[in-house]
Design brief:
Blueprint: H1 2-8, H2 10-21, H3 23-27, H4 30-33, E1 40-46, H5 55-69, E2 74-79, H6 90-96, E3 101-104, H7 128-137, H8 140-148, E4 155-160, E5 167-169, E6 183-185, H9 188-196, E7 200-202, H10 206-214, E8 220-221, H11 226-232, E9 240-242, E10 252-256
Parallel strand pairs: 1-2, 1-3, 6-7, 6-8
Antiparallel strand pairs: 3-10, 4-10, 5-8, 5-9
Helix pairs in contact: 2-5
């Protein structure tokens, strides 16, 4: 594929890695490399509603930094979930070439390979700092690259939400017994753990959570934290809010190419 040729070019490959790993230092050298770069325009599909200015804003930041560092030669246009492909089909879109890249969370795709859950977060697992340490110094990113190779995709860490909240519920949760039979929006390996506790896990994109919760299609839902949750209106759909979200102590986001 054409994007594979792009990464086979040593200068561009180094630039791409630096963009996602150390933007500040590379930005100072952008004027030196811009003249050697070709003109490129890419499409980025994402898993996020545009209203989420932190997460979708993070995708925009990646695009802005790439443009800045390439002296305007490399432009990536981010699209919100649903504009080109559904929120949970970013990996499929990148794999098929519908889009050159995507911004998403690997644990949305555990149905394709359960090990992809490690790329986002593990229940009772790593904090954001520990997750990054594992990516860059513990062989984590290398291991994920081997998994993504099966999809002809390469991934780069691109953001982390930090520790998340435990979610919104229509009824008060006083014991583990209260979880039995609940339909809860919760993806990844955290959903597998909750399933063992009697929960019926649902995987819904952010833009669909409010209506599902308000209309009773689900009984509870976790997203990120107060700021983003209020942006989605979840506080208006369920009265009980809990902490911590032990299933996501440091949820990493990523760019897929």
């Amino acid at each position: 594929m054409k994007r594979r040729k792009f990464f086979s070019n040593a200068a561009l490959s180094a630039t791409g890695v630096t963009i996602l790993g150390g933007c500040t230092q590379a930005a100072n050298n952008s004027s030196n490399t811009a003249g050697s770069l070709p003109k490129l325009k890419w499409t980025m599909v994402t898993s996020w509603p545009e209203s989420l200015d932190t997460i979708f804003g993070g995708a925009k930041t990646v695009c802005d930094r790439v443009k800045e560092m390439s002296g305007g030669n490399f432009e990536i246009t981010p699209f919100a979930a649903g504009e080109i492909v559904p929120a949970l089909e970013v990996l499929d879109a990148v794999q098929s070439g519908t889009a050159e890249c995507g911004h998403t969370a690997s644990y949305y795709y555990v149905g394709k390979n359960p090990a992809l859950g490690f790329g986002t977060s593990m229940p009772f697992g790593l904090t954001a700092q520990q997750q990054n340490a594992w990516f860059y110094y513990g062989g984590g990113l290398e291991a994920l690259h081997k998994i993504y190779a099966d999809f002809n995709v390469i991934n780069f860490p691109a953001g982390n939400t930090g520790a998340q909240m435990g979610g919104w519920f229509k009824k008060e949760i006083k014991s583990l017994g209260d979880l039995k039979g609940l339909k809860m929006r919760i993806p990844g390996l955290g959903g597998k753990v909750m399933e063992r506790l009697g929960v019926n896990p649902q995987v819904l994109p952010g833009g669909e959570i409010f209506l599902a919760l308000e209309r009773g299609a689900i009984d509870g839902a976790e997203w990120v934290g107060p700021y983003d949750d209020i942006k989605l209106g979840l506080n208006k759909a369920a009265p009980f809010y809990y902490y911590p979200g032990w299933w996501e102590p440091g949820a990493a986001l990523e760019v897929q190419i």
